[in-house]
Amino acid sequence: MKSYNRVLIDPDALVHNYRYLKKSVGADVRFMAMVKSDAYGHCLRGVARVLENSGCTVFGVAEVAEGVALRDSGCAGEIFVFLGFEPEDIDCFFSHTLTPVVFTFEDLTLISEAQRRRGITLPVYLKFDCGMSRLGFSPNEAAEVFARCRSLSVEAVGIMSHFPCSDNLHSNNSEQVADLFYRIVRPSEDVKPLARSICNSGGLLYQTASHGELVRVGISLYGYYPDGKAGRKGDAGEGLRPAMRCVTRIIQVKTVAAGSGISYGHTYITDRETKLAILPIGYSDGLHRSLSNRAEVLIRGRRAPIRGRICMNMCMADISAVEEAEVGDEVVVLGSQGTETIDADQIGEWSDTISYEVLCALGNNNQRDFLS
User: Fold this and answer.
1) Residues acting as catalytic residues
2) 234, 260, 282 — which closes off a domain?
3) What is the per-residue pLDDT across 134-184, written as a single tens digit (0 to 9) for each?
4) Which in 14, 56, 199, 255 has the greatest CB count within 10 A?
5) Does 81 share its domain with 180?
6) Could you tell me if residue 97 is inside a domain?
């Protein structure tokens, strides 16, 4: 049985975005597709399959379980795990050929012990915190980190960091962070050079001098710019294409009198006779309650405002200006209908958040289908 609410993923948009972004990096720079958090709500296995069929060979996930699921789905590419691991899960790196991103001395020790048990060397990347105040060794610890790797026989093949402000073209923070990151060197000349990776979507698009040997691309793969509408206004020609569309249906139409309160708390009172469409989508489906009395949906190619508080499984749209609307009509929550478009940047503005959160919320809470 199908839900009223469906999230439709366009594989052609994913492929277009991958190829468009890939052109921005040199032939000797590897490209990692970030498919963590169920591919930003677009479906981990489905997105990885589409991108791998288009030539992508490197993927990034947050947790070990995601890496295992991706490998078990048939993905043959290199899979990086960014959020560390529980000690009992360490064998998964060996059994499923996963690459750990390491940010603690304790995990270096655990990897060394696991290597001895298995008689296999596990290549790792080291994470350094160069200004995010998040995961990572301090750059001041670099000499100690590399010394510990040598003493533990842990093979560090690369280093990583992360830009905190690469979506802000008016900030010089990225240049400062890049300068600090690229000063990190292994104090030995008898080993292979380290692969360096710091660029997220903003880094790839706006910090072209910092691409290093591996870029890690997330939000832009799914058709959105890290700086929102500003990025889309600045693209030239083909640009990025949003890959997600979210639709529902009208399940009841009713007319209420002037002075009627709508939904919980009566936060909206009609000032005239009003025709309402009842929609079976609410905050449990990823349509955040903060969108109450702010958001719009598309019905028959026209915008219809949400009236009253969004409920757990329902909301109400004012269709007084869409007289011909009827039960069963498709309603677009995210995407295009006719000449109108509501994208994740606009929904983000209505709810005081960003496209990333909108995509994850809608994608992870509704039935998803890949268009053929």
Assistant:
1) 36, 264
2) 234
3) 999 999 999 999 999 999 999 999 999 999 999 888 889 989 999 999 999
4) 199
5) yes
6) yes
